[in-house]
Design a protein that fits this description.
With 178 residues, the protein is an alpha+beta fold. The chain has two domains: 93 residues; 59 residues, Signal recognition particle alu RNA binding heterodimer, srp9/1. The protein has four helices and eight strands, in the order αβααββββββαβ. The strands form two sheets. It has a four-stranded antiparallel sheet with strand order 1-2-3-4. A four-stranded mixed sheet has the order 7-6-5-8, covered by helices on one side. A hairpin with a 4-residue loop joins β6 and β7. The chain is elongated, with a radius of gyration of 23 Å. The N and C termini lie far apart (74 Å). 17% of the residues are buried. The model has no long low-confidence stretch (mean pLDDT 87).
C-alpha cells in the first residue's frame, strides 16, 4: 500500500503545529533567551517586559500565516511569501529581545528604546511598601534623575541584598505601610 501525500499538505500541518505550540514559543522562548544572554552570578533579577511577548506573538502569527498562505499559492510565490514572513518574524523576535530590566551587583540596567544603566551610587532612595491586608511587598528604586523602578516580584530576596547595599552605598530605605 502506497501513501500519497501532496507536498502542500505539509504547510497546513506546519501551520497547525505552530498554532498549537505558539503558547510555548511566545511564553518560554523569550524567557529562556533572556536568561541565557543575561544570567550570570552577578545578576539577581532578570525582568522580561510585556512588549517582548507581544513581539513574539506577532512573529508566530506571521509564521502561521505564511504556512497557511503557502498552501494556496504556486511554488514560486510560496517561496517568496515564506522568506518574507520568516524575515519579518526574525525581525520581530530580535526586536523582542531588546526590552529588559536587570538588577545585579553592578547596578540596574533598563532597556526599552534605549539602554540606561544605573550604578548603586545613582540610587537616591529605596521605598519598601507593605500592604497590611494582602501581605504583599513592593520595592521602588528611585534614582538621582527621578526615574523609578517598581519591583513586585522576589522582593524578600532582593531586600536582603539591598540591606547589604544600603550599608555600602549609604542610601535610605523608607518603609510605607498601607
Amino acid at each position: 500500500m502506497q501513501i500519497n501525500y501532496e507536498k502542500k499538505h505539509f504547510f497546513i500541518v506546519a501551520a497547525i503545529v505552530m498554532a498549537l505550540l505558539s503558547p510555548l514559543v511566545i511564553w518560554f522562548l523569550p524567557y529562556l533567551l533572556h536568561r541565557n544572554i543575561y544570567a550570570d552570578g552577578t545578576v539577581w533579577v532578570i525582568k522580561t517586559h510585556a512588549i517582548t511577548y507581544r513581539y513574539y506573538g506577532i512573529a508566530v502569527v506571521l509564521l502561521v500565516v505564511a504556512a497557511v498562505i503557502s498552501y494556496f499559492l504556486k511554488p514560486t510565490f510560496r517561496l517568496i511569501i515564506c522568506i518574507a514572513c520568516a524575515a519579518l518574524a526574525a525581525f520581530f523576535m530580535y526586536a523582542g529581545l531588546k526590552p529588559i530590566t536587570t538588577i545585579g551587583e553592578a547596578g540596574v540596567t533598563l532597556v526599552t528604546s534605549e539602554k540606561v544603566e544605573y550604578s548603586w551610587n545613582d540610587v537616591d532612595e529605596i521605598v519598601l511598601t507593605l500592604n497590611d491586608q494582602t501581605k504583599e511587598q513592593t520595592l521602588e528604586i528611585i534614582f538621582d534623575d527621578n526615574n523609578t523602578l517598581l519591583i513586585d516580584e522576589e522582593t524578600e530576596n532582593l531586600l536582603t541584598r539591598f540591606m547589604q547595599l544600603i550599608k555600602e552605598y549609604d542610601f535610605p530605605l523608607t518603609t510605607v505601610i498601607e
